[in-house]
Amino acid sequence: MEKTPVSSYIIRFNDCDPLGHLNNSKYIDYFLNAREDHLRTYYDIDLKEWAQRGDMFVVSQHEIRYLRPVVYNDRVDIQSALIAWGDTWLVVEMLMMDEAQQPKAILWTRFTRINGRTGKSQNHPADFMDWIHATLVEGIDVEAGLKARLEQLKQKDRPIS
Questions:
Q1: pTM of the prediction?
Q2: Residue 24: Cβ within 10 Å count
Q3: Domain spanning 6-155 has what CATH number?
Q4: Which of 73, 95, 72 is CA-nearest to residue 22?
Q5: What does residue 151 show for φ and ψ, rounded to 5 degrees?
Q6: pLDDT exceeding 70 applies to what percent of the chain?
Q7: Distance (Å, whole) CA 159 – CA 98
Q8: Within 13 Å of residue 145, how many CA atoms lie on the same side as its CB?
Q9: Other CB atoms within 10 A of residue 136 CB
Q10: Would you list the domain boundaries of the chain?
Q11: What is the mean pLDDT of residues 48-63?
């Protein structure tokens, strides 16, 4: 099972400021859209179907770092990966890269599983735990924080300035 799916996107004009830079809030839109695409394409998870049965996730936290400018008409690759989990939550890392695979931005999002009927958090069911264990990327110390993760990426083939 693919643990770090990647998809490509072209930065749209209406997502940019007058200078042609991607608006800060739009980074999150691109990241979340990519993650939804990855869930559907790589894991056969349709969030609409899940919501209809009352099983859903809400964003409880974002942490983002803007590393290099993204501008109108850039082609970017967005990679997503499950990097941590608890009884009722998941942390997903999303990395936006240029065509040379240089990081442009990184986002950690914490999703909390809720019951759509009650609005309360709920534990992951057993069958979902199987998916968690199959897709979890290990070796990322979430407790150390995003700054430590950027240092870890610097040590790999992804130089970050």
A1: 0.94
A2: 11
A3: 3.10.129.10
A4: 72
A5: -60, -40
A6: 97
A7: 12
A8: 3
A9: 15
A10: 6-155
A11: 93
pLDDT of residue 54: 87
User: How far is residue 160's CA from residue 155's CA, in Å, rounded to a whole number?
Assistant: 9
Confidence at residue 19, expressed as pLDDT on a 0 to 100 scale: 95
Three-state secondary-structure class, residue 21: strand
CA angle 159, 106, 27 (to 5 degrees): 130
- Token code pair at residue 79: 């990679």
9 and 78 in contact (C-beta within 8 Å)? yes
CA 84 – CA 127 distance, rounded (Å): 17
Residue 152 tokens read as 């870890």
Q: Answer whether residue 53 shows pLDDT above 60.
A: yes
Can you tell me the distance from the alpha carbon of 27 to that of 37, in angstroms, rounded to the nearest whole number?
15
Q: What is the structure's pLDDT at 161?
A: 44
* Tokens of residue 2, six digits: 């693919």
Neighbouring-strand partners of residue 155: none
- Tell me which amino acid residue 108 is: W
What six digits make up the tokens of 22?
A: 């991607």
